[in-house]
């Protein structure tokens, strides 16, 4: 049939899938092996899902990953004077999962959100600064992580989540 021929043509299937909203595109991988293969092997679709870095451009404009912004809002809020930065309770509540099994599935090492880039084009370096105050003594610790040679393509949400959780748990 005509439908079968269209779906069997990689370029046409990619063009169709590229019109889906980001969340639908991500979930479409569960529909069939054909769709999963098309999505995981297409640089264009991987870019739309924030799994692959966009080509370098002269534009300095960044595009935030809308799925991550919606799900991990505390990481996308800029604290203002008089308003504290989100703490560990924000992380504990962010997923809104009721059962232990749902939470375990969400936090598993293979979860797709962990590989998603936070912005396009992605930064190649993550700078982490940890501020502290102990006995009226201010301190700051700084670390930089480069993603240029790791093949990751840029800073992914899993790394940022793990660093944040580690810092907040050590308080």
From TrEMBL:
It comes from the Eukaryota. Transmembrane segments: none annotated. InterPro entries: F-box-like_dom_sf, F-box_dom. Coiled coil: none annotated. Residues 10-44 form the F-box domain. This is F-box domain-containing protein.
């Amino acid at each position: 049939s005509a439908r079968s021929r269209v779906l069997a043509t990689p370029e046409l299937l990619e063009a169709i899938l590229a019109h889906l909203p980001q969340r639908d595109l991500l979930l479409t991988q569960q529909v069939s092996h054909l769709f999963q293969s098309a999505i995981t092997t297409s640089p264009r679709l991987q870019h739309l899902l924030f799994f692959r870095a966009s080509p370098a451009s002269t534009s300095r404009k960044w595009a935030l990953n809308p799925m991550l912004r919606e799900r991990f809002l505390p990481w996308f809020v800029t604290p203002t004077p008089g308003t504290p930065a989100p703490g560990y309770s924000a992380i504990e509540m962010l997923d809104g999962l009721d059962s232990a099994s749902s939470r375990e599935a969400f936090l598993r090492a293979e979860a797709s959100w962990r590989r998603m880039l936070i912005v396009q084009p992605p930064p190649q370096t993550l700078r982490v600064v940890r501020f502290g105050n102990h006995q009226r003594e201010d301190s700051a610790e700084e670390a930089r992580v480069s993603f240029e040679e790791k093949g990751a393509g840029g800073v992914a949400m899993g790394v940022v989540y793990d660093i944040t959780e580690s810092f907040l748990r050590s308080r």
